[in-house]
Amino acid sequence: xxxxxxxxxxxxxxxxxxxxxxxxxxxxxxxxxxxxxxxxxxxxxxxxxxxxxxxxxxxxxxxxxxxxxxxxxxxxxxxxxxxxxxxxxxxxxxxxxxxxxxxxxxxxxxxxxxxxxxxxxxxxxxxxxxxxxxxxxxxxxxxxxxxxxxxxxxxxxxxxxxxxxxxxxxxxxxxxxxxxxxxxxxxxxxxxxxxxxxxxxxxxxxxxxxxxxxxxxxxxxxxxx
Amino acid sequence: xxxxxxxxxxxxxxxxxxxxxxxxxxxxxxxxxxxxxxxxxxxxxxxxxxxxxxxxxxxxxxxxxxxxxxxxxxxxxxxxxxxxxxxxxxxxxxxxxxxxxxxxxxxxxxxxxxxxxxxxxxxxxxxxxxxxxxxxxxxxxxxxxxxxxxxxxxxxxxxxxxxxxxxxxxxxxxxxxxxxxxxxxxxxxxxxxxxxxxxxxxxxxxxxxxxxxxxxxxxxxxxxxxxxxxxxxxxxxxxxxxxxxxxxxxxxxxxxxxxxxxxxxxxxxxxxxxxxxxxxxxxxxxxxxxxxxxxxxxxxxxxxxxxxxxxxxxxxxxxxxxxxxxxxxxxxxxxxxxxxxxxxxxxxxxxxxxxxxxxxxxxxxxxxxxxxxxxxxxxxxxxxxxxxxxxxxxxxxxxxxxxxxxxxxxxxxxxxxxxxxxxxxxxxxxxxxxxxxxxxxxxxxxxxxxxxxxxx
Lengths: 225, 456
Fold this sequence. Notes:
- The complex is a heterodimer.
- Chain A is of the alpha/beta class.
- Chain A is built from eight helices and eleven strands.
- Chain A starts with a strand and ends with a strand.
- Chain B is an alpha+beta fold.
- Chain B is built from nine helices and 14 strands.
- The longest helix of chain B has 48 residues, at 2-49.
- The interface between A and B is large, with 40 and 45 residues.
């Protein structure tokens, strides 16, 4: 994925670009607001990581201009100002997420991953419902009744697979393929681990993940029974 | 101010009225005396005119008209005495004005006040030259009249004057009251304008006042402007210092994160771990410190608006729970059925809730964290429930005070989280509360805020 990083603090910019490069992304690093704004006008990116305080043009102006030009590229705003208003105005201006400095680099990576995934997903907005579990595929959030539950990415994917066809039995191999793809080497233990976590997080819902010995797992709604 | 002014005006008016009434009384007495003295004198003259000498003797015939004149005063009694030149009483009451010096009346009639038969009387003595056989001599006529009529007249005159003065005083008091009230109204308006002002409103006053009051308003406005500038300066200072502190701190943690642990000697790796954990600690502390300063000073200038507790709690929930949280942790959010509205400031309130959730994540929750919005009578509650050991009741007052750490090794905790939440709650007329862990219920920290009636 191609990422534009706009950050004028050298130490921070260096660390961010190095970290993303290590995970296989291409990072263009700009330290000047004017230059960044220009590059954005003719280059397509998958993610923009934007610092607010920049020499030349500030991050808000870049963001405003970007959205006015109709670009939908995900933007993650970094701010060091204490006024929380900055964060709100960042979201109002069309930022997809923000982080307040100083931040944990793992958190930055995780949030960037979420934004990149949302970019690549592109599924139509729809909600899968099973029992009182509802899964919004667009927003990637899961509700049990009126309770919103936070699930990890793979847990959501797993639930999505099971809930897309309630009652159908999915074998471990099937789940393994869909969940991890071919490039990742994960064992059947991983599936058991994720099923276990998901079960725990869905406790109290009117739908259950049922284990069928030898054949696999299915999601069963209590309402249907 | 009004009552003080009225009191002073009242004292002046009372003194004036007293003086006027006294003057009127003196004048009335003089006028009554003057009027009745003339009658008395007329009667005395008539009587002295009717003295004649016949056969060498002094004769006196009482002229009826003399008494008719005096009869004008109905209730008064009249006494008289006629004295012949030898000094003997010719007729009348011999003991009337017995001690008076009769000869003094030769020049002019003499008036005097006396008492006769137990009643106060007014006397007049007139003299009349007589040609007696033994030579010229002086005869005298003394007439006395009780003083009831003249007193009655004096009283009546005084009473009328008093009534007039009282009426005038009344008018003066009413007029003054109206004038004072009217003149003081701009002061009341000014006070009302200041009283009804939103505490966060630091714009200059725009109340129309008379010229006399405008220096006062100018001073108030000058003060407001100075206060406003000071607060803005403070907020800018906080924002700037936040930037100045956060940027190098981010750079520091960035550089630390770049160190390749694998290539370090075990001893160095241990030092790196120390640096990393201290950096995280410093990061958390800085964030809380700056947020605390920001949140607290925010209330100096921010106007409170109705805030949806569901929205603010959801936002705080998404903010506070990092994506990198332990995957085995069950984290959930449950909004209230109704949209509960409370007066507040979105950002400060969110910061408060974030701090409570953050605290639960760092120190409380082991496998479960729940954030719920509930209604409890007239209050809206944002509950943060975790399955951790909770906080002992004895510690509750301590942890909401600043810079208090529960354990000496509470890493990454500056002890400001609950302080921020509690201060925000207090400003919003709510409170930060705790519910102790029990058999059935896990530990809960909640923010309770009064709900707004007539929700928009």
